[in-house]
Amino acid sequence: MAEIYKAKAKFSESVTAIKKLIGKMGSDNLLTSFISFPNSIYFETQDDEETVVLFLRQHPIVNLKWIVMAIVMLTLPSVFIFFPPYSSLPANFQFVITLGWYMFVFGYSLAKFMNWFFNIYLLTDERVVDVDFQNIFFRKISTAKTEEIQDINIQSSGSFETFFGYGSVFIQTAAEVSQFEFISVPNPDRVGKIINQMIDLEEQEKIEGRVK
Amino acid sequence: MDALGIIGAITFLDIVKFLIVTLLIVYSVFALLMMRQVAAMTKAVTMRDDFVIRLLGILNFAFAIVVLLLSIFIL
What we know:
The structure holds two protein chains of two kinds. Chain A is an alpha+beta fold. Chain A has helices at residues 2-22, 64-80, 91-117, 159-164, 188-208, and strands at residues 34-36, 42-43, 52-56, 120-124, 127-135, 138-145, 149-155, 166-173, 179-186. Chain A has two domains: 2-58 and 120-208, PH-domain like, CATH 2.30.29; 64-114, no CATH class. Helices cover 43% and strands 26% of the residues of chain A. The radius of gyration of chain A is 23 Å and the shape is elongated. By secondary structure, chain B is mainly alpha-helical. Chain B has one domain. The chains are: A alpha+beta, B mainly alpha. Chain A binds chain B through residues 28-30, 39-44, 89-90, 92-93, 95-97, 99-100, 103-104, 106-107, 110-111, 113-114, 117-118, 120, 131, 133, 136-137, 139, 141, and chain B through 13, 16-17, 20, 23-24, 27, 30-31, 33-34, 37-38, 40-41, 43-50, 52-53, 56-57, 60, 63-64, 67, 70-71, 74-75.
């Protein structure tokens, strides 16, 4: 029993050390794309004593393309009306087709939004978690322990990425998934620095015998 | 009425109606899958206020069913 308390004390000690090192960053709302130590984010395979250190999503600006596309698509029924065969159809057919089109645009926007919303990158005090959501038929959750991280590459290229301050972080690991790609995340330099700090801390814990 | 008579009685609007209803059935299945996937994803990663996204999935499916029923009854 005493050993459990000792282990818990060591665990809280290591989380406190990470909190001290990284601090609180980002805003805690549903659409956030960068936050450290979020209060209300949990994932299915999270251990009881595991803490989410960093929660990342793609920068919101990546949604601009599909938002513009959806707006253009919304205006199309007002153009259809001038062209056959749509213009030659009875009013009830035109009504259903228009309603169906708006429904399709809503579905398209929702699918694109979900693609952004559920593509999540997590960094916990123990591992890296990559939640991939490519389309409604495909989802993948990959994890690698912090001690398995071998190399980190940060890439920010292009005018948009430079202007809005986002980029990609590539993490090479010795785990089954050899590369984790945090694509178009805000503050990639800070993310890289945090991962490095986590690796250093993990090594320090190993030396001090505080590894869980 | 023989088979040729039935085929001959099919109008352009009947074909359009058939296509619309078929497309809407396919879309409804897609919307149902999307709703199920949203539920699975919100279970995989739990966030505060994520009921909003679940609600959007349900709304999309409900919208698809309403449009499907509407197309069956008013066309």
